[in-house]
Amino acid sequence: MNTTLFTGFNFEGIGAGKPQLRVLGAYNITHEYSKAPPRKFSHPFWVLSCRFTNHEYIRLHTVRNPWQQVMAGRIMLTPPGSLYWQDFSRVPAPTRGAFIAFTGGETLGLQEFTGNKKTLAVFLDPENRVSRAISDVARYAASLKAKAFCKVQSTLYGLMDQLLSAQPVDKKNHVWTLEGGGHPDRAERSFRLQVNEYLLARLAEKTVNRDIARRFSLSVPGLFKKLAAETDESPMKMLARLRIDRAKALLMQGEPLKVIAGRTGFWDAYHLSKVFKHYAGLSPRKYLKALVNAG
């Protein structure tokens, strides 16, 4: 029998219209031994989670990949759309952990920690600072419910600041450490961030490759070459992703599709829905419904 116990509070619906980086919920988890078969998960929001004991086994992306145990002292960042399986049957002792669910990680460039892929990133947390912060706000949420929103939201900003100071350990496998300071490869990433900021300011405008190249005094081939040194995204793929990220935030604020299309550079609601489904895997309405149901 599966006896997972969640103690926390769901913040969905509270603080609508706040900044795009927004907490959805904070929970502590206690999981007893279970013989239940592995379960498959995928969610439309970001999750930052920690483990205080060696925890479940996970499998990423496909059933052909090997199982890996989630170890204590590690923080996991799971982006929207990740596909993974959890298996608690191999861990007989009760396990403990905590997590925060949130939206808006894309605006901070968190996807770069996962290699711009729908896979999780691991952060080594040798002093358990981030782990304790996640657990503390989950306890705070459980006791104060809706009144805890501002506290948890402010803690989320602090946690993001710590993640952005992580140092690379194994980039290929998306492993970072929270020990030490300085943003990983800040100089190396600066051009991508400049392009990102340029596009964010022009999401509603018609923008093509030569506009971006002209802004940075480059030829179009030079733009592609310089960007390819930092990311596998082309300028137009980056623009499309940023537009969809903004559309997701506007959906959560209750804006109609016609308005969202106009503010994110799409021709109309139909064009928005078509591109949205390509990137998110769901139509805008089904995405919003899934987000609400997940809460």
TrEMBL record:
The HTH araC/xylS-type domain, residue ranges: 193-290
Pfam families in the record: HTH_18 (PF12833)
Protein name per the record: HTH araC/xylS-type domain-containing protein
Organism per entry: Candidatus Raymondbacteria bacterium RIFOXYD12_FULL_49_13
Gene3D superfamilies: Homeodomain-like (1.10.10.60)
UniProt keyword terms in alphabetical order: DNA-binding, Transcription, Transcription regulation
GO molecular function terms listed in the Swiss-Prot or TrEMBL record: DNA-binding transcription factor activity; sequence-specific DNA binding
Classification via InterPro entries: AraC_XylS_family_regulators, Homeodomain-like_sf, HTH_AraC
